[in-house]
Amino acid sequence: MQAAEQVLLRTKGLTRRFGGLVAVSDLDLEIRPREILGLIGPNGAGKSTTFNLISGFYKPSAGTLFVFGENCTGKSPLAISRMGLVRTFQHGSLMSSMSVRDNILLGTIHGVSGAARRRERTEETAAMLGLTPHLDNMAGTLPHGLQRLVSIGIAFAARPRLLCLDEPLTGLNQTEVADTLTVLERIRDEFACSILLVEHNMKAVMKVCDRIVVLHHGQHLASGTPAEIRNDRKVVEAYLGHRHDS
Ligand code: ADP
Ligand code: MG
Description:
The protein contains ten helices and ten strands. Helix content is about 35%, strand content about 25%. It has two domains: about 1-85 and about 160-245, P-loop containing nucleotide triphosphate hydrolases (Rossmann fold); about 95-160, no CATH class. A six-stranded mixed β-sheet has the order 6-7-8-3-9-10, sandwiched between helices. Strands 2-1-4-5 form a four-stranded antiparallel β-sheet, covered by helices on one side.
């Protein structure tokens, strides 16, 4: 009982092959309640594949996925999202010709019943994200940073226990990055929601994450606190040492 409470999601030996290529190899991963877990690594390291595996979009070639202690290997994306895991996509997931309100409303469909409750949840979510003044604007007309918050709003409208974000900071300016990080901290602290964050902006990752897991060639290379990861020789050699944007 206690173990299930302490671990929100656990993978055991998670593996995914594409033909001869092993995109994710024998991965043991653990996501705990109320934590922002960074998942980092070079391009092609297997981050998006891991995302797709834990959200049910890909079936593993081997290994097991537990959500709240329950074996969820092979379950559909919908079944997994009903257990409280929600994700965004690397290339955005909003409907640009719909209003911000209708976009966020879409996100309430699987989590909230009744039209009045859905409207209320939509407004509450917009307020949390600072989107209230933009509720009736067409989403596609907003600046990049606000569009990204709308995508997070769609995912968070269902009030998941785990929110998985694939590169939510790409293309944002410094102010937009800072605003988004504040939102992520509020989601963790005020809603007790964990966040799995795949992100290339190392400064932001180091600032906001409680723990970090580093992937390299589909394998677990290291995990630890931001300070531990920054000082890990293997990580610096494989990844951080080659980067110039931190
Ligand atoms: P990352 O998100 O860390 O950049 P990915 O998980 O997207 O890495 O990719 C890991 C490896 O798996 C890459 O070599 C990529 O080309 C390969 N890959 C990912 N998805 C597919 C797919 N659907 N079909 C074939 N190969 C794939
Ligand atoms: Mg990716």
